[in-house]
Design brief:
The structure is a homodimer of 248-residue chains. By secondary structure, chain A is an alpha+beta fold. Helices cover 45% and strands 21% of the residues of chain A. The structure holds a DNA duplex (30 and 30 nucleotides).
DNA sequence: TCAAATATGTGCGATAATCGCACGCTACTA
DNA sequence: TAGTAGCGTGCGATTATCGCACATATTTGA
């Protein structure tokens, strides 16, 4: 399969790098060969290349990322002015909301956090941070992202992506999800409760795309803190004003 | 130049990716060819590969990163338990300090921020965020990192790295820098003022290496807020207790 | 307005890098 | 002691890659 416009070896190497995406920590070369489907010898060469370029660190037979990859991620963050413009805005509105606000974009069939508010008080529920990923189907962020997609992308994702049950409340019905996404599109926000994590609820509103990728602003909180309509109204009001501000 | 243990094409591709590290935003293919020293046609193929793998986005003739790279960086952060363990600790001590605390590691001849405290009040001076890089020579973080190196690495860096003047106060004398680094090693902290940015001062203390890379905990503040000895003592006390806590 | 400079697109043949198998080795464990 | 899992490596065939050379579009500037 010869393609004159892309470098096959490089693409395979990127697949190796992608093995270390969120979640997986230490991997052996054999793990990587299995995950990528590459020949073990090929995987080995690519791993050694990553090591000698400074992206991987060997600890016995285990491989793990070095912080060097963060420098590239930092390039994205500064290029998009996340630190300089977006972060302060998130902080300000998060304070007003007395909760946390995050910015997420769609990458294929998942969402990626690209910024989150710094709240002093917050005992961060989980280790979600910049670069963490979320599934699209059972989250407010994901559904708002899907609502902001082109219909073509949306259909493609709904038809091909993985359906995972996270809690007893996770909606596993395709038609129902589709309706909820359409509702989000018409209402201008999405609200999901208990479908990703029991006891947690999320609200998301759209903002203008960043570098071509759909983007949303979202908050999450314990399920009951969003139960009353007036609380919900307040959250939506703050999110929408923050979204307004972020429109350049 | 045939090397049986590394994939040349992949290494070149990684060089292309590294062009987008902190600072540079949009690049043309010709820019990349120049920066990497690759043939233009080769650079083009590698860029197209990055694009089709979803790491680059084309905007006319400009190329920029997509957030996908953040997912890999997120892999590093979660693997090192940054979000779950380190971040809350930073936040807590930053509050006590009423300032900001950052964690940085050495990557070659530069420092990379891998975490920073989230304090709502903090009017973040500049867009420094996770993944931002710093030079080693004129910063407290950098000198403490050099003090924590093996002598071999330290000499190698001091002899080969770039010497840049950032302010009128930047120390450009090799022997003097070397003395300051040795002092930092014996005192167990480094303190630098005005050498990187006029009006700014930094303090750094060492902590145990993370995945083999030297690591420091640091704070920065306006120059005069660290002038009084008792203020300095307080800062050092907080940083050291935070460092103690971070030792697993 | 024309020329120079800069950028991207692409065809192709020679070369050299990559591939993947196959074999040998170590370490752990049941 | 056999079985499993992982790493290292040599080598020949294949084929992906390289880089030149030419063509075209766009911007700059005199």
């Amino acid at each position: 399969m010869t393609n004159r416009d892309t470098a096959l070896t490089f693409a395979k190497g990127l697949d190796v790098l992608a093995c270390f995406e969120t979640g997986r920590g230490d991997l052996t070369m054999a793990d990587i060969a299995r995950l990528t489907g590459l020949d073990r010898a090929t995987a080995r060469r690519l791993c050694l290349t990553l090591e000698s370029s400074g992206y991987l660190y060997r600890h016995g037979k285990m491989l793990r990322l070095t912080p060097k990859i963060l420098a590239v991620g930092g390039g994205y963050l500064t290029a998009q002015h996340i630190g300089r413009l977006i972060q302060p805005t998130l902080n300000q509105f998060a304070e007003e909301l007395n909760g946390e606000i995050a910015l997420a974009v769609r990458d294929g069939a998942r969402a990626i956090y690209i910024a989150r508010s710094a709240v002093a008080s917050a005992r961060l529920s989980l280790g979600f941070s910049v670069g963490s990923t979320l599934p699209l189907l059972p989250t407010a962020i994901g559904r708002m992202l899907l609502a902001s997609c082109t219909p073509k992308d949306r259909d493609q994702i709904l038809n091909t992506c993985e359906w995972t049950r996270f809690t007893a409340a996770t909606d596993m019905d395709r038609a129902s999800i589709r309706t909820k996404i359409e509702d989000a599109a018409t209402q201008g926000f999405s609200y999901v409760i208990n479908e990703f994590e029991m006891g947690a609820a999320g609200v998301a509103v759209p903002i203008a795309p960043i570098s071509g990728a759909e983007t949303v602003l979202a908050t999450s909180a314990s399920a009951n803190s969003l139960a009353r309509p007036d609380q919900m109204d307040h959250v939506l009001d703050v999110l929408r004003r923050a979204a307004m501000r972020l429109r350049d």
